[in-house]
Amino acid sequence: MTSIPICLSFLFYMLVNYKENLSKIERNRKWQSDFILKQIRDNLNLYDSGLAFYEESFNKHLIRVSQNIINQHKQKSLDLSKANLYEILQNSDPDSIIDDLYIIDRRYTIVNTTFKKDSGLNFAERDPDLKIFFDSIFSASHCIVDRFTVERSTNKTKKYCYQTTSDKQYILEMGLTSKNSTTYKHLLDSVIFSIKNQFPEITSIHLLQASYNSNEPGLIKQFKPYYNRAISTKSNQHLKFLKNREIRNVAYLYLPIQSSQMFDAYIIQVISNDSIKKKLIRDELVQSFYFFCLTFFPLLGILIIVARSFTKPIMSLSEQTKGIDEHNLNKEITIRGAQELKELSSSFNNMLRRLRESYETLEDKVVERTTEIQRQKQIIEEKHLEITDSINYAQRIQQALLPQDSFIKSFIPDYFIVYQPKEAVSGDFYWADILANGNFAFACADSTGHGVPGAIMSILNITNLKKSVKEGLVEPADILNQTRVGVINDIANDGSEEGGNDGMDCVLLSFDFQKYKVSISMANNPVWIIRNNELIKFSPDKMPVGRHIHQNLPFNQYEFDLMKGDIIYLFSDGFSDQFGGPKQKKFKLKTLENLLIEISDKEIEVQKHELYRVFNHWKGENEQTDDVCVVGFKIT
Questions:
Q1: Which pLDDT tens digit goes with each residue over 129-142?
Q2: For residue 341, which phi and psi values (nearest 5 degrees)?
Q3: Which tens digit of pLDDT belongs to each residue from 239-280?
Q4: What SS3 string covers 34-63?
Q5: Contact (Cβ atoms closer than 8 angstroms) between residue 80 and residue 66
Q6: CB atoms within 10 A of CB 573
Q7: At what angle do helices 451-470 and 339-401 cross, to 10 degrees?
Q8: What is the pTM of this model?
């Protein structure tokens, strides 16, 4: 039995060692990727700096050549799509080193070229980003000269120059080569070759331009989705595959350096062979196993011999105690053996006698206690069922008091309500009604407390709101003033010394859609309106609808002219007071403000789902702090 824990310990050690070695390989791969990115980035920057000295004067010359070609054909009223481009090449200034000429029409199609392989090529179909690029050239009133970059189809270092005709119908594109830029390219290739030689496991490195429709020679077609993913996420991508029974690792490293007007990044394709490193790990494990076998088995034999001299008398005593189980405490063991075993046997028998006496007493008590516990459990279950049924019924009552979706949409079709009570019933509520003057009234309120007490308080608050409206009041401030009187009177005789300080924080709006106005009155909670991505804040009166030191002061009222596209946000403090996030802090009003501005241009239903998602993600495993209610109206 001793050998089992030793073997398990050794196997655990081997497993941990193996995992650690694999982890080292992954860390080494990360360092290797960072090293390659830095080396190529530094050399590309050096490559660009070297070309910059050469390009500055060369670009001015190209602009003159391009403009000259455009002007000559304009003066002769010649159509560039039918011009003899070969003759233009022959008559061009030899210093310009023009390699190819292209004429591109408004459909982004090459309609005339000296490079017949590209004739009829449509750039918009090839890559949507190229359509945007050529649109910018058609819009420009000047010649645009690109940077020197490597053309993969010819492997030449080329520069492209773009000039629109005066009627904006064609683009003249000139492809040019340069001995100086080719020299810089050879230097860059030698750097990449030297990086590859530093790491024996790397089998190839290719520098690719970032384009979703790239067909560059070095790109492995079967892994093109990972190449495209590196472009879209602007991050490194890694994958593994099996080739000739060897594990190969492919990395697509994203390098954000603009290579031309059309390409704003490079992708470095690195292929390495992981089998070399993993073979070293396997060899290490085999050596550890051999060492374990040479030391463990001799040691195990010695331990067995020593253990038998101690365990033989104990085994004899154990055989006599096999008949004693938890239901049979009457069988005592025979006292024999060495003095120590006799004392052990005698003590064991005395223990059995005491256990028999305790067991008999305990059995009676267990029966008595079990009966009592079962009775109490039945009572608790019955009470719990009664309470659950009552809360569920209260929830249905509270839901019945909330306005129907169809009623709200009949006035404001584009709206959302994020409503997430802390418990089954809620102190937060929203309410809507039609005022005597025909205006649509809407309230978002936070009653004192939450759960059952909060729900009871919300019903009292809704009742007083309805009562104020039935009395014919139409101004939000007057309605809140009258509702406050009703709430104070209803709970003044609650039996407490202070006479009841409960009430609600509330925002009440009155919409006049004929005049495109909204009237606003606020108790503790603000109103935010976003217009053209700018936030307009209405600060509330710092007192509740209930008993307060300023309860005799009337609530203020604000008038606001609405515009189509305005978004009005009402909310309780439940969202901003929720604890969570990485530092377990409150969400806070400022964070909610930034979130609403960020999502305000989205569809209303999308905003609703985004608020639910952000709140629950922030809350995580924490208990919900308070009831949550957030309302958004979009004026259409």
A1: 788 888 888 888 77
A2: -70, -35
A3: 877 766 677 788 888 877 765 655 667 788 888 776 665 665
A4: HHHHHHHHHHHHHHHHHHHHHHHHHHHHHH
A5: no
A6: 20
A7: 10
A8: 0.45
